[in-house]
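Table S2 (text version). Query chain:
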Amino acid sequence: MPELPEVETLKRALTPLVLNKRLLELNFLRKNLRFPIPSSELHKGLLNQKISAITRKGKYILIHAPDGSLLVHLGMSGRVTQAPSMKPMEKHTHALFKFEPNIYLHYIDPRRFGCLLWVPKGSGHPLLDGLGPDPIDQEITAQEMKMAAKNCSTVSIKNFLMDAKRIAGIGNIYACEALFAARIYPKKPARKINVAQWTILLSVLRDILQKSIVAGGTTLRDFHSTDGSQGYYKFKLAVYGKENKPCPICNEPIKRIVQSARSTFYCKVCQK
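Corresponding structure-token output:
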């Protein structure tokens, strides 16, 4: 699943293409993705309207028009690709956009876990309202995270990081990488992480996310930017997907365990 760096990469790629441009054509090739596509609302709210801003909240992108916003989520396998026309070029193309003068964007999602929704101006949305703070926001403090985890009696630090209601945008890849960089055992209860450990964890998490954004994110399977380019942070991953390969710190083989149906990669020597 595309995580915060991949979504931020997409937001930055979309901005010069559509900011202050009018949407001239819009075509949906199916009625639903993860949720039904509100095609009539999207046509009414977006067609012939100028895009005023593009923002990100967690793993969601908001494309803002005068009367509301297009809410975009990539799901497990979604991407947005620049194309030469409104004609679908690939299988699993579900939505087609034409912006002035001749900018064509295709929304592609093989597994159809993404979404395209409408958020009226001045309204919230259930998918956004409960999201936690953004991890690259410097205003998040270690003390705040310590307090947020205080009553999580059975939640591991790995699962805490991946809970979008606690921290928005972190998925499996960056949770594993941040915990390795902070030398924290993934199954350690979140409530037992002290302020000093939270200080280190937030620092390395921000550093990893920023470096991944600069590298265009991590492409392991489906994610590509609008021009088809891959994210190259996959070449800098320390533990994710490295089962039985030597730890870059101590040479002990990287272990894999399963937490909440997701693979966790860690070093049993370095992470306590």
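Notes on Table S2: The domain at 4-129 is CATH 3.20.190.10 (N-terminal domain of MutM-like DNA repair proteins). Residues 34 and 149 are 30 Å apart (CA to CA).
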